[in-house]
Structure prediction request, 402 residues.
Amino acid sequence: MTTRWIPVLVLLSLLFAPAALGQDEGNEPRKIDLRQAPPSFRLGVRVLTHRHVRQASPVLVIADSPEAYVEAIARWTDQTIFPVLIDDGSWRAAEDIGRFTRAFQPEKIVRVSADKDLPAGRESRQEKFERVLAGIWGLGKPETAAGDVMPELVSHLQYAVHLPPGIVVADPYDPVWPGALALAAGHAQPIMWYDRSSIPEGVDSVIGQGKTKELADAIETRLEELGMPWQTLGDMVDAVTICLNIPVKCRLNIGENESERFALTDVIGQHHAFSSPRGQPLQRWAWAGQMFGGESTSAYRAMCSLFLQPKQAWIFDGYPNSEPWSAYSGKLAVQNLAKANLPATLIDAPRNGIESWQAATTKALDADLVFVNSKGMADYFDLEPGRAYASDVPVLDRPAAV
Prediction:
């Protein structure tokens, strides 16, 4: 099952034109000099190469509790991993498990339980998760101070396994911790603990500059403590994964406008983000992503990221066939995906109205990648012609990146 990662490596290699890498046009195999490749490409190669040498066992484990989930993750090793989902008895968990199973196609499904509850205290719970991570990489009792296994883990990963591509930011009490644990274990990354109670706002809210800067400063300080080079792209840390149910938007007081809104993941990972006006080029030191949700949902999302790779795409181009909309034609996406041998179904003009949309989405979509061009607002999206609403969003047969 390690061959799952090969199509993605091929897709990454197609991002570069021969001229950009000093190549000659022709039929000769393309050779890539990683020293000349952009940092984003090198980061992808680092992550996917590590995945490729780590076997994905064709067994799906379904845990009936968060405690059982942790025990199952603790059975991962530096050579073998397998997907673990949480069944909390909800209809959403059942749907997630069904979608993942249809995509992953395991040879065996195992249900597990746990006898012990997770530790109640913050420090003891953090130590529990850290020892799980350390055990995966064969570390015994850490020599560092109790409750802080991360420095020794980082040292071990840096010199015995590979350079950690990034860091995961999490709170052991935030419901998204299962996703954080899986992404840290799956990508050989340390976890940085952050008290989510300092940001009481919800995911769909907005946080101010003060709290945003506190989070950014805390991440940078922790990287310094762990001895992980982070200040430029292409060093060690090029990725920050925020596993917290905090706002995805922040408000910064910069320039003439004292209420500039930005995506939180665009601010984290950039130098001078709190003092530079909008539009000014900034130096990025890492790319940031954010995961939110409940315990079973975050586990599902993390396992999709770790174990599934796209095999087919579905594209609906709801834009007019005129300028400037034609510059974003779905035909271009089909051409690029074809270079990676990724087939795509395209629906565009003159069959890109509401009737075509409803006809195409009568059955559940079985694509892994879904691209839609449309205009509209939060509660509707316009096609050519016609208007669609939330009730017109299709059901997914398998997990999809949309």
